[in-house]
Amino acid sequence: MKSSLKLAAGTGGSVVVTHCQVCDSTDLERIVFLGFLPPVNQMRTQGTTPHEQPAYPALLLRCRKCQLVQLGLVVDPAILFPPEYPYSSGTTKILRENFAELYVDSQRVKKLAPTDLVVDVGSNDGTLLSNFTAHRVMGIEPSDMGKLAASRGIPTHIAYFGPVAAAAVRGEHGPAAIVTATNVFAHIENVHEIVSSIVSMLDEKGVFISESHYLLDLVETLQYDTIYHEHLRYYSLHALRYLLGMHGLEIVRVKRIPTHGGSIRVYAARPGTFPVDASVQETLEAERKFGLLGSDAFVAFKKRVTNSKLEIMSLLKGLKEKGKRIVGIGAPSRASTLVNFLAIDDGILDAVLEVPGSYKVGKYMPGTLIPVVDESMLFSAQPDYAMLLSWHIADELIPKLKAKGYKGGFIVPLPTARIVE
Ligand SMILES: [Zn+2]
């Protein structure tokens, strides 16, 4: 059977993964189980009485054949991304800087002529392409962000990406010299259709540039909180090489970048088109050395995850015994995994604070009765401790919150639970 996803009975529109989503192998090893997690976007309004709410198993699997790490359940996208789900652009400073650097970096591999076409898949508000406007650009984006991009002068084809959109863009604008796709491989269910559609847009000497959250960073710096059901797959370079190789692409350059707590930028082209940079072998070797090609690194990862849970709870217990008031800072998707995996409730965190204007203010954290409130509470109520749920940007957040007038201490939960006074 060709399809890599097989329906299992009793899971509604969700699909149990019995075959690897990249190579179709059934040789899948269990890495870690984070329990049943509620969908991160299902936040109930404060004051409402809790009623039934779905939760899905977060079981991480590793394919022994192609090395892809993936969740054991593909949750029905209609549940994860309901029509009323507010769309946020997520173009933070670090992302904008990254996309500006991507342009410079890309010119080292393929020098573009003014008439060359650059296509961005999942182009959002056009931030990435705004760096390529000395050439012809075309975004592909299904959400209203595409209209916003167009109004800012970034031409955008408004559609979900797939073979139809790819054919339409190529038909109208010709083949692309560069196709970019950042944070696309983890989320979309049929990854082979995405890659083959991308290849169909590339000209013979074209380059495909992808950026994905990087498995080595995830394991090394214990980012288990980035495991949630919107993220179906977690890529090593070995897994990406396998996936792109299945579609006739060769990886010619790799760069580790800081976005999302550690990502990998991968350049691929038809074999022999470009010299293969040393970064490719170096990165593959680093993965081998770390142990990503066997079980040991993942057995150790599981132990570290368990240990982290006990450490964080022990730290919180010490503070609660002294009667300290603690709030959480930030309610991104990863915060939901951390709070639910640790079973943190409203007896431990008085509230989770979000920036003014966030649609999350006025709701409860998923799966809990912890209220999400406006960040100004931090400065008016001055709780004793602020636990950073976006801990991967702790170095940026701590001085910022201090400068705004917060006088309490900080709890950084990961990779090692610690207090910063
Ligand atoms: Zn596989």
Describe the structure using short key phrases:
7-stranded mixed beta sheet; binds zinc ion; globular; Rossmann fold; disordered N terminus; 19 strands; alpha/beta; 3 domains; 6-stranded mixed beta sheet
User: Which molecules other than protein and nucleic acid are bound?
Assistant: zinc ion
Report the CATH architecture of the largest domain: 3-Layer(aba) Sandwich
Task: Tell me the major beta sheet.
Answer: 7 strands, mixed
Q: What is the CA-atom radius of gyration, in angstroms? A: 22 Å
Quickly name the level 1 CATH class of the largest domain: Alpha Beta
Instruction: Name the CATH homologous superfamily of the largest domain.
Output: Vaccinia Virus protein VP39
CATH topology descriptor of the largest domain: Rossmann fold
Task: Explain what you see.
This protein has 421 residues and is of the alpha/beta class. It folds into three domains: 15-75, no CATH class; 93-277, Rossmann fold (3-Layer(aba) Sandwich); 297-420, 3-Layer(aba) Sandwich (Rossmann fold). The chain is built from twelve helices and 19 strands. It has helices spanning 77-80, 93-109, 145-151, 163-173, 191-201, 215-220, 237-246, 278-290, 296-321, 333-342, 376-381, 394-403, and strands at residues 15-16, 28-37, 56-63, 69-71, 73-74, 117-121, 136-140, 156-157, 176-182, 202-213, 233-234, 250-257, 263-269, 326-329, 352-354, 372-374, 385-388, 409-412, 418-420. It has a seven-stranded mixed sheet, with helices on both faces. β7 (136-140), α3 (145-151) and β8 form a beta-alpha-beta unit. α4 (163-173) packs parallel to α5. The longest helix is centred in the C-terminal third of the chain and has 26 residues, at 296-321. It is globular and about 65 Å long. The chain starts with 14 loop residues before the first strand and ends with a strand.
